[in-house]
Each structure stands twice: as C-alpha cells, then as structure tokens.
Structure to design on (107 residues):
C-alpha cells in the first residue's frame, strides 16, 4: 500500500539509530516480542532496523521475512527471505518460508 516502493520494506525510523551485532540483537529481541504479542505490523520496522544494524544477522532476516509473509507482503517477503537463505542455505524454516512467499506470488 503506502510508504515504501514495491519490494522495499518501510523505513524503521529511529529504531536503527545504532549499529552492530549488539544493536541488532536488541532490535531482534524487541521484534520477536512484538510478533509474539500479535503486533506484526509494529514488528516489521523494528526487524528492518535489526538487519540494517547488522546485515549478516540471519535471524533478523528470517523474522522480518516471516512477518512480511504474515502481512501478505509476498514480494517483499521473498526478497528478504532470499537474503536469509543466502546467509544460511541449510535453514529448513527459511527455505520453507521462501517457498511459501514464492507460492503466494505464483512463482
């Protein structure tokens, strides 16, 4: 819908103020808390901040991709989950989520 161009998750705003593995872990944990409480839309910018803080943080990519998938943002989910699978090709869960995102797009 609104905000970001197609294929680009929305900006996290102030949640990405710091970077590095420690900041990424804190953002990931906050994002997971939001997901567990059913606040998927609120978790997305937090998880985007996580992967911006540490571009090699697999769990952040997987959680963000799953949140985008739950939100019906299948093209964005595919792009993020492809990054997750690139970081950890042996992750069964990430590969299954990527397949689901592709399936929803009839790819």
């Amino acid at each position: 819908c609104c905000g970001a161009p197609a294929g680009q998750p929305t900006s996290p705003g102030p949640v990405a103020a710091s970077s590095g593995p420690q900041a990424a872990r804190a953002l990931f944990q906050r994002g997971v808390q939001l997901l567990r409480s059913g606040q998927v839309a609120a978790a997305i910018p937090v998880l985007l901040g996580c992967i911006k803080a540490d571009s090699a943080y697999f769990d952040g990519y997987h959680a963000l991709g799953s949140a985008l998938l739950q939100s019906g943002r299948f093209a964005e989910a595919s792009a993020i989950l492809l990054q997750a699978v690139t970081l950890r090709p042996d992750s069964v869960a990430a590969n299954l989520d990527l397949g689901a995102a592709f399936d929803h797009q009839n790819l």
Remarks:
- The chain has five helices and no strands.
- Residues 21-36 form the longest helix (16 residues).
